[in-house]
Amino acid sequence: MTDEDTTTDERTAAEKRSERISVSEGSTTRRNVLKAGAVGAATAALAGCSSLLGGDDGDSVNIDQDEVSAGLLTFTEGAAAILGQQAQRGAEMAVEWINDAGGIAGQTTMSLETQDEGSNAVDKYNQFIDDGKDVTFGPISSGTHEELFQEIETNQVVNVGTDGTVTTLYEGEDPTYSFRFQNYDVMEVMASVFEILERVGADNIDTVAGVNPGYSFGQDEMGIFETAIDRLADAETVYSGFPDLGSGDYASHISSINSEEPDVVFSSLWGGDASTFLDQAFQRDMFDNVQAVAGPVFYGSADAISEDVVKGVERGKILSGSRNYYWGIPEPGRSPDSDALYDAATGQDGITVPTAHYMSGFGAVTAWATAVEAAIDILGEFPDQEQIAATLEGHGFYTPGGYYTMNVDHQCRGNGYAGVLQWDDNIGAPVIEDVNIFSATQISPSPTGALTSQNEQTGEGWVDSL
Amino acid sequence: MTPGISREDGQLKIRIMKGMELTVRETLGLVAGLVILFNLPTITTLAGDLPIRQRPIYRGIVFGLAAVGLNLLLRHSELVSFGHAAFFGTGAYTVAVLVSDYQVKSATVLLVAAIVAATLMAALIGYFTLPHTGLYFALITLAFGQLLFSIVKGQRALGGTDGISVRTGEAGVTILEQFPTLFGIQLTGQEVPNTILLWFTLVVVIISMLVMYRIVKSPFGRALDAIGQERTRARFLGLPVKRYVWAAFIISGIYGGIGGGLFALYFRSVAPGETLQVFVSGDILYMAILGGFGTLTGPLIGGIVLETLANIANEVVFTGPAGETQMGRFITGAVLLLIVFVFPKGIVGSLKPGGRVFEGAKTLKNDPTVAGPWFRQFGQVTVEAAKRSVKNVRYLLFGVK
Amino acid sequence: MLEADGLKKSFGNIVATDDVSVQFGKEDGEMVFIVGPNGAGKSTLVNLLTGLLEPDEGAVTLDGQDITTMRADQRVHEGLVRSFQVVKVFEEMTVRENIRTALLIKRKKTGGLGPRAIWEGLFSLDDEHEAIERTIDDLVEQFRLDDVEEAIAEELPHGDRKLLDVAMSFALDPNYLLLDEPTSGVSAQETDYVIETIVEVSESQNVTTVTIEHDMDLVKNHADRVIALHQGSVHGEGPPTMLETDQELRRLLLGVEE
Amino acid sequence: MVTSSIALLEANSVLLQSGIIEGLQNLLQPDTFIVQTINGIRFGFILFLIAAGLTVILGILDVLNLAHGELYALGAYVAASVGGFLVGEGTAAIMAPPSSFDPVTSFAFVGVLILAALISALILVPIGVVMETVFIRPIYERDQVYQLVLTFALLLIIANMIEFIWGSNPQKLDLSTKTAVNDIPTFELLGLSGVPSIVTLIMVVSLVVGVGLFYFFSKTKTGRIIRATAIDREMATALGVSPDRTFTLVFALGAFLAGFGGAMELVRTAANPGMGESALVLSFVVIVVGGLGSLRGAVVGALVIGVLQNWMTVVEPSLESAAPFAVMVIVLLVKPEGLFGTWGERT
Predict the structure, then answer these.
(1) pLDDT below 70 — which residues of chain B?
(2) Distance CA B124, CA B115 (A)
(3) b/e map of D159-181 (b: 16 or more CB within 10 Å)?
């Protein structure tokens, strides 16, 4: 127990903050340093509109809501837990920072309960609702997200999705309560496509191949990739394989690629599958037969990718995307918030480096909390679900990873990151070097923040029109 | 012969319909069960934090209905179907496709369509499985089930692995208005519409159970019993064995189709993993055995229990070498072991006269001291099994002296 | 007329029946016994005659129709009925239920066993037909099973199970009844009783009964005609006195020379 | 957004047709054909190791062991731990993977790797014994549905225990162990690139185990006793054979084979939570195609399914997972007893 616990409610959040910082300054332990960083970053993270922090002048409104409870659906079990664990830790970290800052608007603390979305996810979601959760976050799976979407609209409690990549999720729909922070798959595929064009050059690409997971996500990604690479580089797809999720066997696909010798291989394999695929491709000399292998989500399995592969493959041949977040941007040292989040995350159990999924959890919580603050600022009281939903539409906010906008189509957009996968001996994990930052307008149909009439253009239609 | 009360061999019997007479105990169980099910919404609200939820129980009811159908083959024709998800999935997908592609919204029409589709599917698959019995029957039904699963999950038009939503997707209409209707009532919103659909489902289930009762007590049911017990003899008694088994297969498929159709209406979304996959078929089979495949209501109760159990068991989390792990599958497995070794007649079968729980309770009531020997016996069996394993491992590793 | 012409059937290298031709009249109440040493092809012949096996050569005709073209239930409808060497009754049913199952076929008068019967069957209970219950009463009495009529079949003594098996065959109202060793496994005292009951009922119902039997005394006492098989061929056919006069047959059957 | 699913299905099937012809042309290019066939054979060998245990247990014990796939998965997980301990970088208790090819050390390393696989498979033997003696033995005489429930219960328990012990992240050996094997030239010597030596290793070792299995059943006394028990349980008992011990031995053998298959597969790929389920379902296909209870059938079935599935990834990837079941259905309809079935003849 530290003396923080004895602080009384009369003091403002700012006072508490400064006090804690001073406490940490007096100590050299790692934990306290982390905490100092964390608090600094929390200020920034929640300062999307700096005035929202209210309370700075000790004159906050009384919003009569001491606590909100949130539910997070994510993969805590099974092969996909490699992603879900990051999302969960990210969301937990965001909640921790918010509470360290005294809560939303300095008053309302958050609690977070996590459930596995692997089986009967919708049941668990409804359990959250039955339990009276004020907000829900998640899920990761695209199939679950589609199912959940209509439940959310029925229940009328705001949900901010962490992932759920399908392009079509909100197309042709008119969602009110359902939002998605990350992983609109057009964005990550287009980031990969532009990365490929940048590194290999459109003129050097005649043929492409794909190995993507054999379910809706993989088929979606490959479909978008094929269209885009055809429009932008006039390249032909010579091979397209869809191995089952978790099959662990890519021999036949790699053999096919070796005999076709395409210029570029595109693979949206993720988690353990991505690292197994890279291992086997390495063993079968696939990298000798192609100019580049690009994976929009390779970096999601940063913890599992083999050092030998990354070191053994010619530099620049493995291109990896990192969706809407990469911890190395802005460069370490240039943003205290980003550094603080990195330090805090790597201090958590089971996280070597925070990946885009870490940010999907962190960002979803931040999106909601900052929107609630914005609403409180306007209303002077705690908003109801409809008001939160209305505020979230078009809401812009900062995270340590950068600025994001929740568009009117309920799809959040931010910068996309992609670069060359390299090994870093210092952190014992792969990193992305020569990172290209693609702006949201470059890689997605709707321009950031602009209040265009919703869904006038589908993701697929946009890619097709390039 | 109208409903009424009669006294036979000194026992009070309650006649529900012609040929259907229940003991007082059975009647009380039935009434209690129905009261509980019809009042589920209230009960789950009162339960508060207790893990009693309507959705898993509903899932149990509709899968249990499929298990009741499967039981017609299992109990009477003694054929083990390992592919019953095919019919459940057919019913569910029929509803989903009709709603999303053809804007059909009437729940009753959808349910009839699910029955028709399941009938056709069962007729097709059944025709090819007719010559087989025993393990081959199980494996060929499994093969057809997995074939259907593999095909469906590869169809983009059916949403692939993500499946499809059970709503029309009409433009300019809110999501809530895109869902099916029952007798003109919009089946949306959490509280009331789900309750209406639950009640409707329970009525469908009651009718289905009464029909199944008539089927098994009819000459046709008798013929199925005969075919199951001694197929060759039945053939040489002039029973058209294949035609009867085919008919039974179709009827059992229809029950799967109704279950699947109701599933789609309630959960509003259909995906191959939860309606067509081989382990869904397995679950339907285990529901029948868990509840007691020698009984009419057993499979339905087995369904409710298995789903509720899985729901509760997953709350149990142990911390192992690799961190926190949900122990749901372990617990479900342990319960299935218990059924195999201690209560082979299943839940309902064990509660009936002659069943283990019923007789055990009677003995215990007469002489409470038997509990001691029971525990001792259980201990002895466990110790013996352990010794046997050790001995066998020793034999294998070091040879027999 | 049940007629076999030049039946040949082999299993691998073993010729079970070789050029066997036999005839049986329809509903003439004749008691025919098939005799022969083990491996003579008696059971194979019965299996061929009832369509359980298909001959390699030759044909079996029932009233002029080749029986391999008929379904098993059609053969029963045409009056060709059999029992098995190993008792095949419905073990988990009572005696009455067993016979009631056999009597299902009687429903041909009310719609047969086709789709319509299945449909109608769903709307009637199994024990509704009074006429059928009376027939069961008669059969149970004829086969002296009345004191065990509510017993589960698997709990009956072996002799009673055999009788039940035969009673079910008679319930089908056969024109030709083929019995594969109805006394196998039955105790010596019960054997007489089983055979006598069969003969009694056969005669009263004018059923042509073809029985495989090992007990020569019984054959002598009850047979109208004897067919002797040896190594798959018909060794001889004639009245039961044949068993006395044909020395070679006596040697084959009894294994002794006098 | 809403399109008639029927129209889409039709469009789909037209696409499929043109794709299949093109795919066939791709497959029939000599290099592709040879490499894909070798891949298929390797997969077939692994499938054989799994299916052999399943089919022998089925043929002799008359039990369809649904937990068999989990024994395979368990083999892979145990091998990840054992292999990591024996040959892992930094943890190597025996020897670390050599960094470049050198005949003596490289082959010695392969030997240690095989040893690790053998140890892993041996660890499964007592597990198999306990499964048989404690759980399965009491229910031999019971209705077949109880066997299905029992072995399914064991499946659930083992799968949950695997997750309890190893978690849900895939487990694999260091890539350097694989590279060390791949550095040894094998198919390259035949002028065929694209088949890493690890595949050769898996094929050779599986082949040796497979031949050993046939030798065991046809030439050794124990093997003959097992076969005699399979053919006539009563006769074997009369000859003084203890069926109990035979059954335990057979089950332990099945567990060993499945575990060994898992361990060999781990050398090439990673152990993951779903691997048991898919292996189980594919082994069903193998033993049905080959004929229930037939070891010869398992060989043929495994190779047919393994090779066919690999060809299918080139011809029409979307049919990859449906193809085995389509084959199974066709075989069951045309030759219900399987290609080498003897099962149907038993009563």
Answers:
(1) 1-3, 8-10, 18-19, 189-191, 395-401
(2) 14
(3) bbbbbbebbbbbbbbbbbbbbbb
State yes or no: pLDDT of A33 exceeds 50. no
CATH no. of A27-183+334-413:
3.40.50.2300
Q: Is residue C43 a part of any domain in this protein?
A: no
| A27-183+334-413 matches A186-324+415-464 in fold | yes
C62: helix, strand or coil: strand
B385 touches chain D (CB under 8 A): yes
Residues from chain A contacting residue D314 (CB–CB below 8 Å):
252, 256
Q: Using alpha carbons only, what angle is made at residue D84 by residues D78 and D86, rounded to the nearest 5 degrees?
A: 100
Residue C234 in domain: no
pTM of the predicted model as reported, rounded to 2 decimal places:
0.85
Q: Are residues B91 and B20 in the same domain?
A: no
- Is the residue at B331 inside a domain? no
Full residue range of the structural domain in which residue B396 is found: 372-401
Give yes or no: residues B85 and B161 share one domain: yes
- Same-domain status, B390 and B279: no
Minimum-distance CB partner of D32 among A77, A242, A259: A259
ipTM beyond cut 0.90: no
Assess B264–C contact: CB distance below 8 Å, yes or no.
no
Total number of domains in chain B: 3
Identify which of A76, A122, A143 has the shortest CB distance to residue B267.
Answer: A122
> pLDDT tens digit string along D168-193?
778 888 888 888 888 888 887 787 77
Any domain includes C112: yes
Q: What total number of domains does chain C contain?
A: 1
Q: What is the CATH number of the domain that holds B309?
A: 1.10.3470
Domain coverage including residue C121:
89-173
Looking at the domain assignment, is residue C180 inside a domain? no
State whether B18 and B104 are in the same domain.
no
**Chain B residues inside the 8 Å CB shell of D328:** 139-140, 143
CB within 8 A of D3, min separation 6: which ones?
Answer: B101, B157
Mutation to test the B interface, candidates A74, A82, A119, A167, most B Cβ within 10 Å: A119
In which residue ranges of chain C is pLDDT below 50? 109-111, 256-258
Ramachandran angles phi, psi of D293, nearest 5°: 85, 0
| DSSP at B53 | -
Instruction: Record the tokens describing residue B337, joined without a space.
Output: 């072991």
Q: Same domain for B11 and B46?
A: no
The H or E element containing residue A137 is strand A135-137
Task: For chain D, list the contacting chains (3+ Cβ pairs, <8 Å).
Answer: A, B
pLDDT tens digit sequence for B321-369: 877 788 888 999 999 998 888 888 888 888 877 777 777 777 877 777 7
Task: Please give chain D's pLDDT, 347 residues, in tens.
Answer: 334 444 444 444 444 555 777 778 777 777 778 888 998 999 999 999 999 999 888 888 888 899 999 999 999 999 999 988 887 777 777 777 887 888 888 888 888 889 999 999 999 999 999 899 889 988 888 888 898 899 999 999 999 999 899 887 788 888 888 888 888 888 877 877 778 888 899 999 999 999 999 899 888 888 888 877 777 777 777 777 777 888 888 999 999 999 999 999 898 888 888 888 888 989 989 988 988 878 888 999 999 999 998 888 888 777 777 889 888 888 887 887 788 865 433 32
pLDDT for D67: 94
Residue of chain B nearest A178, judged by CA positions: B175
Q: Is A241 on the interface with D (CB under 8 A)?
A: yes
Find the largest Cα–Cα distance for chain C. 66
Name the CATH code of domain A186-324+415-464 (choices 3.60.15.10, 3.40.50.2300, 3.40.50.1220, 1.10.10.10). Answer: 3.40.50.2300
In a shared domain, residues B66 and B117: yes
Residue by residue, DSSP assigns D275-308 as: HHHHHHHHHHHHHHHH-TT-HHHHHHHHHHHHHH
**Domain membership flag for residue B358:** no
Half-sphere CA count of B395, side-chain side, radius 13 A: 18
Which H or E element spans position A442? helix A440-443
